[in-house]
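Model the whole thing, not chain by chain.
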Amino acid sequence: MYDFLWLVPTLPFLGFLILALFGKKLGKTLSAFVGVGSIGISALITILIGIRFLSSPPEGDAFVQTLWTWIAVDRFNVNIALHLDALSLVFTFVITFVGFWIHLYSVEYMADDESFSRFFAYMNLFVGAMLLLVLGDNLLLLYLGWEGVGLCSYLLIGFWYKDSANGYAARKAFIVTRVGDAAMAIGLFLLFYSFGTLNIQEILTQAPQTWSVGNNLAVIATLLLLGGAVGKSAQLPLQVWLPDAMAGPTPTSALIHAATMVTAGVYLIARMHGIYELAPVSMFVVAIVGAATLLIAGFAGLTQVDIKRVLAYSTISQIGYMFLALGVGAWSAAIFHFMIHAFFKALLFLGAGAIILAQHHEQNMFKMGGLAKALPVTFWTFLIGSGSLAALPLVTAGFYSKDAIIWFAWSAEGGNIYLWAAAVFGAFITGFYTFRMVFVTFFGQQKIDVSHFPKWTIHVPLIVLAFFALFGGFIELPGTMGHFTLFSDFLKSALPAMEEVAHENVSLEYFSQILTAVLALVSVYLAYVLYLKKPQIVTNFTDTGFGKGLQQFFLSGLGFDWLYERLFIRPYVWIARTNKRDFIDLFYVFLPWMSRQFHYAFSYTQSGKVRRYILGIALGAVVSITIVVIL
Amino acid sequence: MTGFYIALIFFVTGMFLVAVTLLFSRLLQTKKPSPDKYLTYECGELPQGGAWIRFNNRFYIIALIFIIFDVEIVFMFPWAVVYGKIGLLAFVEMFIFIVVLLVGLAYVWANGDLQWVKPRPKLEHLPKAKGK
Amino acid sequence: MTASEILKMMPLIIVLATPLITMLIIALHRNHLTTMIVSVIGLVLAIIAIPYSKALDLTKIGELLIIDNYALFYFLLIFTATIAIIIPSYPYLEMRFKGNREEYYLLILTATLGSSVLAASTHFVSFFLGLEILSVSLYALISYLRQTNEGIEAGLKYLILAAVSSAFLVFGMALIYSQTGKMEFNALMQFFSNSSKLNLISIVGLVLMIVGFGFKLAVVPFHTWSPDVYEGAPAPVSAFIASVSKGGILALLFRFFSQYDVLNSKPLFLIFALLAVFSMFGGNFLALLQTNVKRLLAYSSIAHFGYILVAFLAGNNAQNFKGVEAATFYIVSYFITIIGAFIVVGIFSTREREAMSVSDYRGLYWRHPWLSVAFSAMLFSLAGIPLTAGFIGKYYVLASGIDNQLWTLVIILIVNSALGVYYYLRIVVEMFSQPEEAAETKHPSPSVGVMTGLILAVLTIALIWLGVYPTGVIGAIKISVMGL
């Protein structure tokens, strides 16, 4: 079964090729078959490989499929090879499985779009690039996938390119992530320079031998990689692109947020864990970034009115949790949360998409309301997703995954009580804004009549994902509740486990869990009171000057765009303007000028006259003979 | 390579001398052009008409064909001399050689190049003559 | 001559027999399509004969020829390229030429024969014979469209200049022979390597031969003919000159110097290095603002052979064949791209003229998306953009240069690659820009025949295939170069 691994990334690329080349001729039905089918088969193969992996793991707990050698010169040896271990298997599974349901959903969502096949082409390419990223066994493939993901996000965010705002959002996403990519590229060069190989596994095994703990190079390399990770994963300080990325079609958002793109940063850090462990400082920075991001994004989420923007900020915040977990060294907890998050976030986006479709593409949730009756399936599944996001205790998967992170934030080696407090507080905010969204959207008065009732292509993905958002958590239970560790055992072969350090103090763990659970419930109740029962409290507060300011502040995502505008954009534009004719520029003007002069000079020799040509040959001969004679 | 530096000096001096001589001749000469001076020298005869006349390009094809078969004979003489030593192989090789030439002959024949009055070729690609 | 020797030579013999048979067929029944099909069948048979020839153990055929894996590899390359040129020639000639079209195939086939003899030659005699078979066929081919002034002009120029260069070459050979009394490459190179202080006359002979090589490869300063000839010759013939003709010469150049350490011979190294540098800069600067696509391709070809010379210099010491490998791979990728590019030019030609101006390609994407994508792929490969064969080729050339510490050459190569990108992308930009409404009618909008389209598609796929999966071809090249 393992030998079919190469099909997993190949099929989406193939789908992309077919759709890109023949898309217009295929028609919508066939395009849909190709687009969804390619991912579907990929997902099926992944699941079969996963079953095989669980039943009889490959030797060394990793399967490497070397397809061919791209370039082999001296030390620089690039194999086109896929590396499948527990970590990449989890990612591959989530990407293909969740991706498949998103694709299926898109068939209905995009049904009326004129660029139907173009959409599926991009989506397939997106999934393919992400699969390349997680399966590639060397830095070059990883980078290729990384850039491919960036490109596809640009294409998809700006999918409806006729509206210039969408183009702007796409550019913003591309440029902001590029800042991180530049850092990451340097980091990758540094790794290649230090270890002389591009192979990730070789780097990871060599690293502890070459670098001692706290080695400066290790710190620099990991921080540079972190730069790339925060760019792609929309973490502080490069989180500003994600809310604007909502300009793309909703399935795109689901794909970006759940299965691909934003989780690339999590993957990168988890994959490079061997190096991060050598740089405790960087680990700490990762944890801090995560904690800060989850709080900031949580605050921003509190006041958003656009349903997709709420979800966008919740993604940033949840990825923040994953970074926090990575930072404290709770690798498997981070990956666990990633998986559960993929389920419920895809579910929420798809649900939001169904709502938007039903409400004449209205995205402002305060203009909606009372949709619970009209869209029952959407409502129930959305509720499940929200519950999971808010980590409602015991019943939802989100509870188990988030609880693990919160507990590790305190008890793990790199954790402390401040990180724990941030995580707990973040959980409270999450619960609040999530259920604010649920209450505002589904309860109260129905304001817009429902224009589109979803069919099975929307319902099936929702129900399947809801199932996983509910029960996906039971594969990993905390120490206080049976200590069932299927998932982390599975990941143990790829990522170091944390158990032994973590479960020393049981009563503390109980305290943490109960506190989180209670806070989650309280937050839901608070949302219920403030947005359904007595909305005047909120309006009264926002009418005051302070409240209004705070609301605006939160609404703008804590003013980061404003800050960056003043901090980077304006000075840059100013420098560019004043520096238009500076010395450096002269050099670049000089180069083409010089080339042109050379061109004219050389053109003179092309006179078209045979005697001149013969003269040229004779001169060449004379000069050559002179060289021989003199030397 | 010191010897060559001497050669170089010699070369340069030679060039210089020639240039100086030509220059002096140019400066000292008197110039009296007359039409007779510009006539083509044809052993004292007066030239008839211009040198740029057209002649029938069929001569060209005939000449080519002639040369091919002429050269064939040139090859066959030495072949005949050593034939006894090489034997069958030489026979086969010459046979192939002549077959190749015969193919050429057949081609030339079929194209009508052996006839002085050639079957008119289609000349659609040429621009049609104007007027007349 | 034994039977196994004849079998070994089978590919050459088939290529020799094909024009004869074609000639007979023309004599019996003149038909354009039949002639084309017979030529293609002949070449396909020759390709089929290659593996059988490879299976035989002996390599040397008399004193003149050697048919080793290296020669067979070039045979394969040359024959395949010729097929790829012949098939699109059919609609091209149908459209552009109203006289006798059949002789075109005769000439192409004899030229192919000449080129493949070069690849297999180990002796001055076979070298010169092959070269002349190639050149004489080319004289006629270049001015095949004899209704055009440019064609006649190009043919005449090539005739005169090639004659001059042949004179240099033969004189060089004569000088060498006068000193060594040998004409066989291996023996010659032994002579050159063994004599500690080189005999001046023989090395001058070598230099004169390099002039001849340089002319055929069109490296600066012996390049001047190439833009005029490329422009005037029919597009498929330009493709042939750029690929098959140069490929044969290059194969010979490698074989000629394979036993000689050019890298450590100061004067020869300097000459080749200067040729490479001048070609890179000259070709690229000349192409920079060129608006005629055929001339532009000619200039780019000059630059590309400058790159190849870098690899030639790098790989020419007997211990390390990396450079030859790189150059051979480069040649393969260059064959594919240049033939593809000229096929596109040929497709766009109308009855009156060829689509030579860059402006003819304006907005091509909106009229012929497939064609423009194929052409873009060719141009990207010429520019050396990753995931095309051109990138891998250039990469290997660079690597071989770095391997031998030819830093100056490597840096110049990189600078020139950057220069090259400009003019290749200029055409791409032109193709993808929106056409002006009024100009719509002026542009040629041809219909692409099935076979031509197929060839173009195969070339494009091969281009990307080599860019993504070069290992197979590189392995084949490694094997073929090993015995050199």
